[in-house]
Design goal:
Number of domains: 1
CATH topology: Four Helix Bundle (Hemerythrin (Met), subunit A)
Number of strands: 0
Largest sheet: none
Radius of gyration: 18 Å
Order of helices and strands: HHHHHH
Distance between the termini: 31 Å
Number of helices: 6
CATH class: Mainly Alpha
Helix content: over 70%
Structural class: mainly alpha
CATH architecture: Up-down Bundle
């Protein structure tokens, strides 16, 4: 039963991450209104929290899941999935820093608009996250179906 609950939670969190990332991609546009920027900044914080919960639940699945830690720790596709998740995480840093700059600028000027260049940079990072994110369920499916057994 615990394995099932952890799997459900893990999948819901992954879908939530994708939804939040897509929302960010939709909202980051030239001429973004102040209210949308404020929402975007809150959503980015939620994105980080959901990513953290995803990691915690994933660790719990490795430790207490039916397949056991041995299955995951020696599975090539598990490590490819983890590496991809880390790369997605690295790609979140520049947008988050930009959003924090925007938050500070908005505090001083409610009419603040990020430059087109700044918007373009953030969109490139968000797009990179989306492209990498696609690999996560691919590696998860391969991990679940093939051992990809490696020795250390």
């Amino acid at each position: 039963m615990l394995d099932t609950l952890l799997a459900i939670a893990h999948h819901i969190l992954i879908f939530a991450l994708l939804g939040l990332l897509v929302a960010e991609m939709i909202w980051v546009r030239d001429g973004i209104p102040a209210a949308t920027m404020k929402t975007l900044i809150r959503v980015d914080g939620i994105y980080g929290a959901v990513a953290g919960l995803t990691i915690i639940v994933g660790i719990c699945r490795v430790i207490w899941g039916l397949k056991g830690a041995e299955y995951y720790l020696h599975n090539l596709f598990f490590w490819l999935k983890m590496a991809t998740f880390v790369l997605v995480g690295v790609c979140t840093v520049p947008p988050t820093l930009a959003f924090q700059r925007w938050r500070k600028a908005l505090a001083g000027d409610e009419g603040y608009l990020p430059s087109s260049g700044d918007i373009a940079k953030v969109r490139r990072w968000l797009r990179a996250q989306l492209h990498l994110f696609v690999l996560i369920p691919i590696f998860a499916a391969l991990m679940a179906r093939y051992s990809g057994y490696i020795t250390f």
